[in-house]
Amino acid sequence: MSDPKTVKLVDESSHKSSELPLVSGTLGAACIDIGTLYKDTGHFTYDPGFGSTASTRSAITYIDGDKGVLLYRGYPIEQLAEKSSFLEVAYLLLNGELPKAAEFDTFEHDITHHTMMHEAQKNFFQGFHHDAHPMAMLAAAVASLSAFYHDKLDVEDPADRKMAAIRLIAKMPTIAAACYRYTIGWPVRYPRNNLEYVTRFLHMMFEVPSEPLQMNPVAAKALDLLFILHADHEQNASTSTVRLVGSTGANPYASIAAGITALWGPAHGGANEAVLKQLEEIGTPDNVESAILRAKDKNDSFRLMGFGHRVYKNFDPRAKIIREMCHKVLDELGVNDPMLDVAMKLEEAALKDEYFVERKLYPNVDFYSGIIYKALGIPTEMFTVMFAIARTAGWIAHWIEQHETPGSRIGRPRQVYTGADVRDYVPAGKR
User: Nearest to residue 145, comparing CAs of 163, 178, 167?
Assistant: First the structure.
């Protein structure tokens, strides 16, 4: 919505000025609409990483980093984590409202009956090297979906967009499990539609033909919680990538595959994988103290992974929720792993040490999610894949929203050009 207030920007060298309107949303800071800035002044704005730039209007998620607020369609993440399920949250993100019982039954039925990969897609995996990273396979496999399901790819058709959303949310766990099993030489398991979403995925991951899988309910509950917490997070790097690619008219599978590749970066989705790698480097609990001393040393480049958050300056609303589940999983499963002992000693130190407390370097969602995945037997290289399964719900919701928003246009960021000035071509013999 437009704000009656304006901001006047004056170029003191040329005395040109621009009256820029403020744009306000339901919550959060107002934004200065700079659409006429170049026409009025001849200048663009410069904002590395788009840290102070809003490029879209969205009604899906809201973050207040200072206050530690995360809302999905207006619902606090704490309430959804306690009372909802991932599949219900996926419906909420897509449709804007929590489903009535009949609506959820229909949605769950549609998801359940689109879990199969095309049989030919199994052969697709045979082209990958046996020890390829699962994220590399996931990105390629998801991008390939447009070759298998090209019957409903009209991005302007609401029915086709809905079908793409159903297919992506349904098939992502199937593809993810196939990526894992291919790396360890196990046969791909078909989805069991008599199971619910998360349990079905765990069976596809770990069940072998020779014996049935005995599943602890706590494992499924923990994974469902992680999926809820990771389902969406406003305009982050991967979501912006999905929107940017989608703005070209690209099909949903290509757009989501682009989001997967962005998520793979260690500064984004790969953060919980980085946590576990660092725990491996620390090795044993008796090395924790020296690691903490290194982290405090400003002259040492060593930094503890999984502590603090670049958005949530004071606390992450997800951290408390996931911490409780983390300890419940460890207690219930009785996992005996020295690495987890290292993690718990680090947690204890960070919560008590004045250095960490003063700087608000609290154990974050990446720290705890990595520990939970480790306790569930999910290998480190699959952590980002798990993230991608959850985030698919948010990505496709944003992709659809973009196509439903009037006035959406292709993404076209500006630049400050620092290359050579105009110059003439010199023939090879005269250079």
Answer: 167
Active-site choice (232, 233, 366, 398): 366
For the stretch 164-176, pLDDT in tens is 999 999 999 999 9
Average pLDDT over residues 177-205: 95
How far is residue 280's CA from residue 1's CA, in Å, rounded to a whole number? 50
Give the pLDDT confidence score for residue 2 in this predicted structure. Answer: 53
- Whole-angstrom CA distances from 281 to 53, 201, 221, 236, 375 are 38, 30, 30, 29, 18
How far apart CA 418 and CA 117 sit, in angstroms, is 47
Predicted confidence (pLDDT) at residue 356 exceeds the cutoff of 60: yes
What is the rounded (10 degree) CA torsion for 91, 95, 97, 101? -50
The answer to whether domain 2-54 has CATH 2.20.28.60 is: yes
Is 309 designated active site? yes
Handedness of CA 400, 149, 245, 128 (dihedral sign): positive
Contact between 346 and 304 (Cβ < 8 Å): yes
CA–CA distances in Å: residue 193 to residues 75, 171, 186? 30, 12, 21
Question: Where exactly does CATH 2.20.28.60 map onto the chain?
Answer: 2-54
User: Looking only at Cα atoms, what is the longest distance across the chain?
Assistant: 79
Q: Which of 20-24, 43-47, 253-257 has the highest mean pLDDT?
A: 253-257
- Around Cβ 249, how many Cβ atoms within 10 Å? 11
CATH architecture for the domain at 271-375? Orthogonal Bundle (1.10)
Quick check: 175 and 141 in contact, CB under 8 A? Answer: yes
Highest mean pLDDT among 68-77, 102-111, 277-286, 289-298: 102-111
Determine the pLDDT at residue 295: 86
Q: Classify burial at 387, counting beta carbons within 10 Å of its beta carbon; exposed 0-12, middle 13-18, buried 19 or more.
A: buried
Q: Let me know if 130 is a catalytic residue.
A: no
Per annotation, catalytic residue among 203, 230, 233, 309: 309
Residue 194 phi, psi (nearest 5): -85, 0
CATH of domain 87-227+235-262: 1.10.580.10
Record the tokens describing residue 429, joined without a space.
């013999």
Q: pTM of the predicted model, to two decimals?
A: 0.90
Per-residue tokens: 154: 């009209």
What is residue 25's DSSP assignment?
A: -
- H or E stretch including 308? none
- What's the CA gap between 1 and 183, in Å, rounded? 50
